[in-house]
Amino acid sequence: MIRFLLRFSLLAALGVGMGVTAFAGSVTDVNGLYYTGVNSSGGLLAGGAADPNWTVTYARVGGANYTGTSTYTGSAYVLSSAYIDPAYVANTSTAQWVTAPGASTAASGGTANVGGDYLPGNGTSGSNSAYYVYRLAFTIVGTGTGTVTNNLQISMTIAADDAYTVYVNPVSSPTVNNSGAISTGGTAASASGTSAWNNTSAFTLGNSTSGGGTNNSKFVIGTNYIYVVVANTNSTTGSSGSNTPNPSGLLVYQVGSGVTIDGRVIPEVGTILPVALAFGLFVLRRFRRSGAPPAA
Fold this sequence. Notes:
With 296 residues, the protein is mainly β.
């Protein structure tokens, strides 16, 4: 009985089971929307540390494709304050710039994977172009299965060097050809930006235009993916004859504290759990004071 009351109180605090209409594929909560450069508890990581949440799943460098654990793919690395490019928009108090594996501390070489930001990439096409695909996996909790049918909106603020394109749950993981064309199995981009290293842009990933929302994403109950394709172009359009590495990175925040479901703001876990537990203890005390015998 005690376990039932505590579980009921948590569901009540989440708005589940108390007058909320349940639909097939109806979202009730979203978990795992981590900012870049933080650990799994949301704390800032040290410069040079591997990001446990954001992964570079694919890279096209020098005309070659990289996947799995390779020179340019794997856990993203946090940029160190000693090497971060001075032209970049500043880290926030809750998010930090990250970059792809293989990044070095200097254009002439230096040390790789210790917090530097120098990576191959010159131009948007040709053998010296380079693209790095970052991925964040997150979980949507709800009733039913398959595509989410009620209104889910997730805000996102981003900066990237040099340009970025965002996809949500593409049909196939993004890849890039030698002309710079991104292939996703037909999934349209949710957002994009250029010359984005010294400024941030904010947008919404959403599945419905009702109530003034945005409709540019498809969500599912269970595991979902946000992909950010970052082009390292050195501000060059088309092909380039230079193969000198230059800074590249990604900064993402406002993905976990800006979520609405059917227009209702979803509080962060840190505010949900204390309310749920307090309510559960209140119900438990009232239950004990009633004189009812304890559960066997």
